[in-house]
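Final paragraph of the annual report: two paired records, presented back to back.
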Amino acid sequence: MIRQRLFRYAVYRNMFLSFVLLTAAMIALVTVVLFMMFSWSTAKEVGKISESMLKQNSAVSSVIRDQVYNVGNLLLSDKEIVGALLDKGNDPVKQYGVFGTLRRIQSTYPFIHSIGIYNGSNNTYLNTKGITKEQEKELLEEINSKNTSYFHLFPRRISAANSSNQSEDVITFVLLPSYYSPVNSKGAIVINMSTSTIQKLIGGYRNEATDSLYVIDDSGTIITHSDHARFMEDVSQESYVQSILSSAAESGYFTRSIDGRKSVVTYVKSKEMNWTFISVSQYQNLLFNMQALRTTALILALACFAVSIFLSIWLTHHAYNPIRHLLDKMSAIPKMKGNRRQINEFAILDTTYAEMTERMRSMESEAFAARQAHVLQLLNGGDETAFRRLAGEGRGPYFLAAALLLDSQDGSPGGEDEGLQSYSCATVARAAQQMLEPEGASVAAVGEGIVAIILPIKQNRPPIGAVGMLEELQSEIFRTLRVSVTVGIGTAAQTYDGLRESFDYAQSCFRQRFFEGKGRLFHCDPVIATEKKRSDAQYPDKREKRIIEAIKLQQRDKLEKEIDLWIKEIRDCTYHEAMFFINQFIGGLYKQLNVHMVKNRESAELFLRFTRRITRFQTLMETADALKELALRLCSLSEESGAVRHAEVVDFIQMYVRKHYARPDMSLEQVAGEVKLSRSYVGKLFKAHCELSFNDYLNAVRLEKARELLASTEDSVQSISEQVGILNTTYFYTLFKKHYQISPAQFRSQHALEKKMAQ
């Protein structure tokens, strides 16, 4: 039976395969994640162990440095050694005594390969291994060229004393006693340490997982390596070495591909010797039983997969039963039992339910269309017959008319185009009908973005429940359709004429939206709805004059504030009064500003575009934003006309200051008189263009000239202060030090020193 269902029924087969693939994917994912976590944890532990081992190794550098300093101090405390460094002659007897002393000291420190004494005055070199001066020629030349510190380090290869064909790898420590003492500046103590000795010191901490352990200096040159052939190799170009040298951390570990193999790199930096201890371990060597782990994980995964096959069969059989029972009740299945072709159960169910849904939608659309036609007949010139049919349904005896007005979805004046608005209106009407149908409501789209609702009620005033229901409808439409609607509620009506009047009241509420904003719910008040003219409504002409003045002076902050206050003064007017005042305001701006603009044509087009849009603004806030945008654009046009003149004035002031800076009476008042403008206006204009005050600019010019005089003349500071127009020398000192962070005398001394060093 299971085999027959797998081959014949597509849904059964898909369910079985889905269960199998799901369980297989989960098993594979869990196995891989566990294996990766185990390997990552192992690499982390090895990295920490290697880091701890290298930190112990880094102590070797401190020991080596201390021992080298001890040997140096011991040699410098010996009279024969000091005499050999200072001897200008070439006495063989003294050299023999020095040689014996060196051999005795070397025997005390078995880690030392050889010790050498170089006297630059008589050009002699003694070495405990018998290495000659000619063999050490390159080292001695480098010693003569360096005297910048007491301690120097050279990894190098030296020739054996008895054979020039053999060489040894050593780390040479050069001590220059003359750096701290009056000993001959060309004298030096050379201490050679075999790299094999250092490798033995650090190799004792090496673990089995480490493939290579070595030390590099701060330039990336290998000082000692577990592979002796790599001594003095430059590895600074290796990416992992560059990462280590550029890292600010004193120790750490990371994974990196080296020679095509994933490896764990651990490092510890030694501050005493500028050495970096590095260990490299191949990733595959960290897990010694890696293959066994992989095999075990694979066997467990296969076993779990076999169990999942049986589990998938059981789950598929039980999950498929509801679909099978549903198919048995359909007439199409028995007809197919006689043949052997495959069956797609979902296709059968989809076809059946599509036919049923289409029939239901057809019936629903016909009922909705009939209801809409009924509402339109009631509200658009019908007769009392339609109202009596509505009242005969027994839902009354009173009826409440409400109207939904679609707000602009994009926030622009006028909302969407006509086609989109018609579609949105029909969608909102259908959604409202579905939500309010249990309450006996009738809904219809009556055009121009308005949806009418007729709701039966039990009393002659709108109940709280009906208001809450419309608020919920408003929220649900916005949540599901992302359409904002403004709701207007009329009065309760018991007659046909009263119902039509109630709908007119509901639509009159939309005028309140202009003042209070979109997406709100308004109750109808017949007194407000008639919009009787107010006798005390006055146009705020004083506020208009302040706005025009702010535009001319380019006072943008004040401009926006004044427009907000102008809008506030017309907020209490009726809708028609507000629109009249807005038109009057635009006319006043055009009359006062258009003739003063440099670009009259552009400003005229701004006014023309605004007047075309003015009737499309849905709220007073939209109107205020558009007025601010228009005023700021007019402000920019006005600013363009004065920008050239302002730049010329500032350029003249700067040239005048640079020419007459030496005048002690130089001031803002004087400069303002030169350009025939007021002092305060010139000060604001100069600061706006130069981003610093006139006095700060004058002081900067004077201090710049003073610095030139201090550098090029021997005049006194008082004289230079007077030459640049500052008669108070103390004030000049204060300004100079505040501006340049040094005093005039310090500046002159510093400049003289720099000039002398440059020569």
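The closing record of the year follows.
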Amino acid sequence: MSPLPSVEAADGVAVVADVVCLGESMVTFVPSRPGRLADVPSFARGIGGAESNVACGLARAGHSARWISRVGTDGFGEHLVREIAATGVDTAYVQRDPRRPTGIYFRTAGERAVGAESIDGDGAVDGVAASEPLAEVLYYRAGSAAAAMSPALIPRERAWSGRVLHLTGITPALSADCRALMREVTARAPGRPLVSFDLNYRVSLWRREEEEGADGESGPAVLLDLARRCDLVFVGEDEAEAVWGARGPEAIRAALPEPEVLVVKQGGAGATAYARRPGEDADDVTFEPAPRVDVVAPVGAGDAFAAGFLSGTLRGLSVAERLRHGHLMAAAALTVPGDLGTPPSRAHADHLVALDATRWGTLRFGPGWTDLPSPAEKWAETAAVEVPDS
């Protein structure tokens, strides 16, 4: 496949970036030791936001990335913009709001819930113990600066100032204005770039919006409409079942026939991509297994996967190679405590992606693997080692 073509910048718009990521980021507070939020004595500060995570991952992978959002004129907003810019992301279009705060949230370690269940402080779902620990997540983002994003505040020309526009399903859950903005930037019109959309279903956000009944729109219907307007869609297999009742990759593709490329993330098993054949009403279907990973924390892996796949898309790689690059970026995120892992060098990643199916299937990644010598230099001593099947 050929790399994505370059595009011309509109009048008054900054130099075109490889990828523009639009959405809210927040300051995160993570407990200093394991335990319930009610019990831990202190927290470490970090940053988090699906869209900015993707922008940071792409910038660290050597692409030009731009993040568009709004923050308050407070210390948290200053910290967010400074930390994201430090990764090489262009933050020139981030707006400061003197009347609204920057969003923050607190979370414990563990997997996010994706269904409509309630989660108590012991990680139980509706009072029943979960098979894997679920994170406690408390958002303080209602009325945030980013929740005020709208077509009037975020001109479409700025959102379209890249070869790719990356969005997620978090933004439309923030407010009616944000939903209007999402519809504006996904409208098909001359000059529209390739539009990428990661479902990123956040049940608590949609529950709040639906309870408030601002415009009578349901989360599943809004997300389905937006996904169908986009060119490249990422969706977790568990998310699709929770949101639309679609079970398995084929059912998800049947629910989303419009995108040119649909990527169904299947957790530790791998990912399946449906890519429409040019000029045909048929797909090429590609599955790539995920390598084994010694997980430090599960947060940020989906965003890192999207960054890796988008990197491969920008480079014109095959769908199978894009999936493998997604898996490698996810492995980098899974082996660090925070949302952002350091991706492997491009040469290191390309070496791993080029392995045959047998050797790819024996990879295992542990903490620090991206900092060690590349396989070409010293394969036997890297943390990405080949292990025999048990």
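The radius of gyration is 20 Å. This concludes the annual technical report; the extension proposal builds directly on these records.
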